[in-house]
From TrEMBL:
Domain Tubulin/FtsZ 2-layer sandwich: 200-318
Organism of origin: Rheinheimera maricola
Residue span(s) of domain Tubulin/FtsZ GTPase: 5-198
Name recorded for this polypeptide: Cell division protein FtsZ
One Pfam family in the UniProt entry: Tubulin
Top-level taxon of the source organism: Bacteria
Keywords assigned: GTP-binding, Nucleotide-binding
Statement: the UniProt record of this protein carries the keyword Membrane: no
Amino acid sequence: MSVASIIIVGVGGRGCAALQHLQQHSLPDNISRIAISTDKRALNSVLCDNRVLLSETIANGRSSGGNAELAAAAVRDTEPALRQALCSADVIIMLTGLGGGNGSGVATELAKLAADMAIPVLVFATLPFNFEGQRRALLAQQSLLTMQQYGAAVVALPNDQLQRALGAATRLEQALDASNQFLLVILQQLTAMLADTGLINMDFNDFLSVIKQPGLALAGAIETEQEDDLPAALQKLLLNPLLQPQQLSQAKAALLHIVAGKGFSLQQFEALGLQLAAELPNVALLLQGLTLQPEADTKLKLLLLASGISADCRAKLLCV
């Protein structure tokens, strides 16, 4: 069976910064990284497999200046090159920051283009700080809605939630590094899950059945010791502020993937599944997979992806 081709796309300043962080770490061979922006100078500084500069005719090789309509027009003007860059993908994972020109304007148009190409999309999108004003917040909200209308599953990561998790005194550089690390751990485990064959396998179609659920998505990952209190480890994952625990109980579909050493027992596997089912009372589709890695020894990795969060929860999320 062929391995799914995954393209990770960094959009605009925030997305390209996250993509640059990923480039410093190993991912499976079936992953390629593409940076997309109107800003020529910023784009050229990103280490990745491919870059697409959006319409120099419209944007003149500069940032969109917060103009989402201009950025969207630049995407439409560059559509042939984008189709060529994305056509080999079985799934697109998009990294972006919503509320600005490139982030919102480009991301929504790419979601539309991917829908036209019948390529599933999973988006990780940061949301503006409250102090950035209502205009950026409203643009981010509209972008979330638009991408979901095109069938994309969107994991929203509010910057204010990141600030609460790390503490108000945290330096901006540290906060961005923490956000990038959060994404890295999720993407490393997610892409490994799709590339490896597990004892209880979680394949590409299982992944698609979850991300195709309408509504917002949530994702989180954790690594712990296999001998630790596993219910406490899963609870720690579920309560991660960046996972939006207040919305998680509304999910309609979820997958839990476990990577463990050879000593991992059936009882442990079942206990984690029962605990997750109890935490997600509205889930109609709950998938659980297991990959045994002897070299993992006592390490245990948990990856959670949940989807189908309702519109009411989306509105609350944007107000936290």
